[in-house]
Write a structure and sequence with these properties.
This protein is of the alpha+beta class. It folds into three domains: about 45 residues, Up-down Bundle (Transferase, Pyrimidine Nucleoside Phosphorylase, Chain A, domain 3), CATH 1.20.970; about 260 residues, Nucleoside phosphorylase/phosphoribosyltransferase catalytic domain (Pyrimidine Nucleoside Phosphorylase, Chain A, domain 2, 3-Layer(aba) Sandwich); about 90 residues, Aldehyde Oxidoreductase, domain 3 (Alpha-Beta Complex). Helices cover about 45% and strands about 15% of the residues. Helix 12 packs across helix 13. It is globular and about 65 Å long. It binds uracil and calcium ion. Uracil (URA) binds next to helix 9.
Length: about 450
């Protein structure tokens, strides 16, 4: 087999066999297939697409390109969740204890943030003492004992995806549906998931700007899951503004705790998306007969405080301060809060999530490069959402900052944060939140 023949075949629109795809991926990881041939192949895929069989073969070849996590010793159906979003996405912090409190095991590996995106592992590290590294045995034993564990990705998981993603980033081949779909699914399969719930973001802040494109990506991922024997459901949710109001590590833990504690003032969007994703997790995990019944169960676990108690248990099990659950003031907090005034009066019609993610990174909440260090206490809280009106000078958000931040650097973040809010004269209605659900049986649209 020669790479050049496989590139030509794809260029001319032929379907590659699973063996041919594995040859390319294994060759790429071992160094026998060079970057320039992989680039040419990725561009051919961009223009020609891939069949469902090819996409599934690519996913499995990438999933098996490095270490895989064996969760067979965990009792029950292991349901993983993944979001294609990444700015201020607090859902994992809520869902891990909430879903576990309903009897579905949560054995979750999460990542750290980079650039404008945040990572669940950084957020959890804002809890004093919390250990994000457990051995494989500790991980499995903890899930069997209390129903949940959230740890940092360790080992050499999906090296083929890391290499190919880096290559796609510099060859204008990120935006190819089969390549995005196989990239996401390979990581979930390598992490040991039996079933997968995907939160596919749509709109200004997302990869896919329209609901139709988002559905196409979701269908590709659901098809892979079906092909490789992992039940997969995708929820298409709005990203024309960040989900929830907090962006920043300890701030997001506080927001998650506010949901678990049933406090008022939490963004209803965050609760709705969390309940929708959680409901599909319960259904796939065999703990509820329908999405509606599952939502009732989830609401009951929130109202009874059982989800909050599960969060405290999770903290205690991983060395964190369990008293944080009842007293969020034990979390690190920034030295001062700086209001962000609206430059003009108007109605909020959109809020750019990526711009806010970058602004939060510049405050120190995120990493410019993989080796940057971060400040867990800083970040941004939104005070206005789409549909709200503001007066000129009224605060649209607040920056939580420490002593190191001031002068021109702070002015820059203030400008960026204010500019992320689109203000118009005519009011816009808040966008519908859950736009569609894609399962192996088809697409259900809500608009
Ligand atoms: N997220 C991923 O993990 N992979 C992609 O290709 C795009 C988004
Ligand atoms: Ca949030």
């Amino acid at each position: 087999m020669r790479a050049v023949d496989l590139i030509r075949a794809k260029r001319d629109g032929a379907e590659l066999t699973p063996e041919q795809i594995r040859f390319l991926i294994e060759g790429y990881v071992s160094g026998e297939v060079p970057d320039y041939q992989m680039s040419a192949w990725a561009m051919a895929v961009f223009f020609r697409g891939m069949t469902a069989r090819e996409t599934a073969a690519l996913t499995l070849a990438m999933a098996e390109s490095g270490d895989t996590v064996d969760l067979s010793a965990v009792r029950g159906v292991k349901v993983d969740k993944h979001s294609t979003g990444g700015v201020g996405d607090t859902t994992t912090l809520i869902l891990a204890p909430l879903v576990a409190s309903c009897g579905v095991p949560v054995a979750k590996m999460s990542g750290r943030g980079l650039g404008h995106t945040g990572g669940t592992i950084d957020k959890l590290e804002s809890i004093p003492g919390f250990r994000v590294e457990l051995s494989q045995q500790e991980f499995v034993a903890q899930v069997n004992r209390i129903g949940a564990a959230v740890i940092s990705q360790s080992g050499n998981i999906t090296p083929a995806d890391k290499l190919l993603y880096g290559l796609r980033d510099v060859t204008a081949t990120i935006e190819a549906v089969p390549l995005i779909a196989s990239s996401v699914m390979s990581k979930k399969i390598a992490a040991g998931a039996d079933a997968i719930v995907l939160d596919v973001k749509t709109g200004g802040g997302a990869f896919m700007k329209t609901v139709d494109d988002s559905i196409r990506l979701a269908e590709a991922m659901v098809a892979i899951g079906t092909e490789v024997g992992r039940r997969t459901v995708a929820v298409i949710s709005d990203m024309n503004q960040p989900l929830g109001n907090a962006i920043g590590n300890a701030l997001e833990v506080r927001e998650a705790l506010a949901v678990l504690r049933g406090e008022s003032g939490v963004s209803p969007d965050l609760i709705e998306v969390t309940l929708t994703l959680g409901a599909h997790m319960l259904v796939l995990g065999g703990a509820a007969p329908s999405v509606e019944a599952a939502k009732e169960t989830l609401r009951a676990k929130l109202a009874s405080g059982e989800a909050l108690r599960k969060f405290a248990e999770l903290l205690g099990a991983q060395g964190g301060d369990p008293a944080v659950a009842d007293d969020p003031s034990r979390l690190p907090s920034a030295a001062r809060v700086v209001p962000v005034p609206a430059p003009r009066a108007g109605a909020v019609t959109a809020i750019e999530a990526e711009a806010l993610g970058t602004a939060a990174m510049l405050l120190g909440a995120g990493r410019a490069t993989k080796s940057s260090s971060i400040d867990l206490s800083v970040g941004i809280r939104l005070l206005k959402r789409i549909g709200d009106t503001v007066d000129a000078g009224e605060s649209v958000a607040e920056l939580h900052v420490n002593a190191a931040m001031g002068g021109e650097a702070l002015d820059d973040v203030l400008r960026r944060t204010a500019a992320a809010f689109e203000l118009r004269d005519a009011a816009a209605a808040p966008p519908p939140l859950v736009r569609a659900v894609v399962t192996k049986d088809g697409v259900e649209r809500f608009d």
